[in-house]
Design a protein that fits this description.
By secondary structure, the protein is α+β, with helices and mostly antiparallel strands. The protein has helices at about 5-25, 35-45, 60-70, 80-95, 125-135, 285-290, and strands at about 50-55, 75-80, 100-105, 120, 145, 160-165, 175-180, 190-195, 200-210, 215-220, 225, 225-235, 235-245, 245-255, 260-265, 270-280. It folds into two domains: about 25-180, Vaccinia Virus protein VP39 (Rossmann fold), CATH 3.40.50.150; about 190-285, Lipocalin. About 25% of the residues lie in helices and about 40% in strands. Helix 2 (about 35-45) packs across helix 3. It binds S-adenosylmethionine. The site of S-adenosylmethionine has 23 residues, from helix 3 and strand 2.
């Protein structure tokens, strides 16, 4: 048996490492999203003329061109393939939307995504995962819609399957549409005062957060108070508590620095202003945990 020298081992390691690295940095092949799936994705994200849409890996430009032509939005797409970038810009001109739909020869990982109100994406699951931390760092409320693949353990707010006639990968001619809203960070301990049972009482709400999912515990004047519901959608926090003498009260609002400002509404529909103060700041679990590594590509997206 031949024994490899140290130099030989290094060369082999380099040869093995190179293809892995090429795959890691954006080896998503060009596959078109069928037009009916493009339409469904833009409908799911409720794209309107107020939106700025960025397509990550834009192919022939169909996502942003459709958003501009059918919904009046603006935006751009980026792709590593120069020929596709030229085709997309030509298609935008032909569609009469070149002023609102632009395409650039650029790596999505060095693209400034901050103007986006909507991100569209059809990339391999492992590429999605690599983009996840940048997407989660976008302004809370930014909507994300993906064809076929998710972002690891970040649960979508909405997910469905649909027919995808003409789809060029997989045998099922079906596609998945997945939708998320970038969540704000509201983890911590919050306090406010309520009128309950004819006197002012102190509510304390403890929120742990993983992505948009909240785990909530509450106290009223130091005694446990059941939390019936606690949700976070983008910047909107909503908490449902049952208070003595008032029944179910929904507190909803948005965070501004270390306060939440909003409205409280009782079961009879009576509303009043609501404001809470964060007295302890915590990191959301997804901010602390490193992303898992996913290395599968199933063309039927199951
Ligand atoms: C599956 S296709 C999707 C095309 C189009 N968005 C659609 O849905 O019809 C993925 C595209 O992403 C491009 N791409 C892959 N990695 C990229 C990267 N790092 N930066 C920019 N584009 C990339 C590929 O060249 C390919 O055109």
């Amino acid at each position: 048996m031949r024994i490899m020298t140290t130099a030989g081992i290094l060369l082999l390691a380099l040869a093995l490492a190179l293809p892995v690295q090429a795959q890691d940095f954006g080896d998503t092949p060009y596959v078109q999203t069928p037009q009916n799936v493009v339409d469904a994705m833009l409908e799911t994200a409720k794209v309107t003329a107020k939106d700025y849409v960025i397509d990550l890996g834009s192919g022939d430009g169909r996502m942003v061109i459709t958003a501009a032509k059918k919904r009046g939005a603006r935006g751009f797409g980026v792709d590593l393939d120069k020929r596709l970038v030229k085709l997309a810009n030509d298609n935008a001109r032909k569609a009469g939307v070149a002023d609102r739909a632009k395409f650039y020869d650029r790596d999505l990982f060095v693209t400034d995504l901050s103007p986006a109100t909507v991100i569209t994406i059809y990339l391999l699951p492992e590429v999605n995962l690599m983009a996840r931390s940048r997407i989660l760092a976008l302004a809370p409320g930014t909507r994300i819609v993906s064809h076929d693949y998710g972002f690891g353990d970040w649960p979508p707010d909405l997910e469905y399957e649909m027919d995808a006639p003409g789809k060029s990968v997989g045998r099922s001619q079906r596609s998945k549409v997945l939708y998320w809203v970038v969540p704000d960070q509201v983890a911590g301990r919050w306090q406010w005062t309520v009128e309950a049972g004819g006197k002012p009482r102190q509510v304390e709400l403890s929120l742990n957060q993983n992505y948009q999912k909240l785990e909530a515990n509450a106290k009223l004047d130091g005694n446990a108070l059941p939390v019936e519901r606690a949700t976070l959608t983008g910047r909107n926090v909503e908490v449902l508590l049952t208070l003595p003498g008032r029944g179910s009260v929904t507190f909803s609002g948005t965070r501004i620095n270390q306060a939440i400002e909003g409205t409280q509404r009782d079961a009879a529909g009576k509303t009043a202003p609501w404001s809470a103060v964060r007295v302890e700041l915590r990191d959301a679990a997804h901010v602390i945990a490193p992303p898992p590594v996913v290395r599968e590509f199933n063309t039927d997206a199951r």
